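Journal club side-thread
Mid-discussion, someone asked how the predicted structure for our own chain would compare to the paper's figures. Pasting it here so we can look after the session.
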Amino acid sequence: MLRTVRSEIGDLGAVLRNLMLIAVGAAVYTELRKPPAERTWHGKLANVVPYDFRLPSVETLRLAYWNPRSQKIFTDRPLGVGWAINIPTLLRRLGISGSSTKRTGTRAA
């Protein structure tokens, strides 16, 4: 029996959702293993996957998702587990958005 693309995408979504739940559980478990005075509620799982359960500021959110000065496409997620996508850098690298400054119409004599 042939599987449809829709069911395969649905299966992939279920796998990704389960992996995310496992990562959140692992991050919470990592923090709860520490003595209460040493719990920071942010860090990295296996020194790779970032997590942060502190309430982010507006500036932290902006720097994670909209920081055209940064060269990084993937930044630490400001709340939760995993990475955020720096949208202006991604668009620039894909060639969708160019420089934000354009020449104004001045004519040479």
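Post-session note: The first strand starts at residue 42 and ends at 45.
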